[in-house]
Amino acid sequence: MKKIEEYVRSIPDFPEPGIIFRDITSVLNDAEGLQLAIDSMDDLLKGVDFDVVVGTESRGFIFGVPIAYKEKKPFVPVRKKGKLPLETISQDYDLEYGSATIEMHKDSIKPGQKVVIVDDLIATGGTVEACIKMIERLGGEVVKVIFLMELKGLKGRERLKGYDVASVISYEGN
């Protein structure tokens, strides 16, 4: 069986010269690769006591929903501003070239719930940091944050210091 790293396509000079883009569509397009990715991420949760899975739009949905299903836990989507129909809370955060806002339903996390956050990639950690702030404002406790891939050169793990962060694959650069 192939290792998960063998399913990830590396595309040089995208989106700009000097950057190596780590493409997960090659993982998603292969049934064994997709199963291996989800199972490997789910393995990061062994021994973790949690009540709910939170995933960030959109690739956090791809991996978060099957993990929630396997673990028999509810799934909470975190979306871009204006995409959720009920009363929401929001959090602004900085991007490389600007800012963005994410939201979640106000009633999606109950006080005292133990939360796992799932996303495909940790780069700078800004999106997940914003997600953590919303969960904590609602009274939830983030007990684990898991990613398929980590770009160590962008130091996102440092931004999430104090939280239990794990990734299946780590790349040294950006």
TrEMBL record:
**Recorded superkingdom:** Bacteria
**Database matches in Gene3D superfamilies:** 3.40.50.2020
Q: Which gene underlies this protein? A: apt
Q: What is this protein called?
A: Adenine phosphoribosyltransferase
Q: State the GO CC annotations.
A: cytoplasm
Taken from the record, one Pfam family name reads: Pribosyltran
The pathway that the record names for this protein is: Purine metabolism; AMP biosynthesis via salvage pathway; AMP from adenine: step 1/1
Say yes or no: keyword Transferase present. yes
Q: What is its main location?
A: cytoplasm
- Check the record and name the NCBIfam families matching this protein: apt (TIGR01090), PRK02304.1-2 (NF002633), PRK02304.1-3 (NF002634), PRK02304.1-5 (NF002636)
Catalytic class of the enzyme: transferase
Q: Where, per UniProt, does this protein localize? A: Cytoplasm
Which InterPro entries does the record associate with it? Ade_phspho_trans, PRTase-like, PRTase_dom, UPRTase/APRTase
Q: Name residues in a coiled coil.
A: none
- Please provide, alphabetically and separated by semicolons, the GO molecular function terms listed in this UniProt record: adenine binding; adenine phosphoribosyltransferase activity; AMP binding
Q: What is its EC number?
A: 2.4.2.7
**Keywords on record:** Cytoplasm, Glycosyltransferase, Purine salvage, Transferase
Its biological purpose is as follows: Catalyzes a salvage reaction resulting in the formation of AMP, that is energically less costly than de novo synthesis.
Keyword Cytoplasm assigned to the entry: answer is yes
UniProt record, GO biological process:
adenine salvage; AMP salvage; purine ribonucleoside salvage
Q: Which family does it belong to?
A: Belongs to the purine/pyrimidine phosphoribosyltransferase family.
According to the record's subunit comment, the protein's assembly and interactions are: Homodimer.
Where do the Phosphoribosyltransferase domain residues begin and end?
48-161
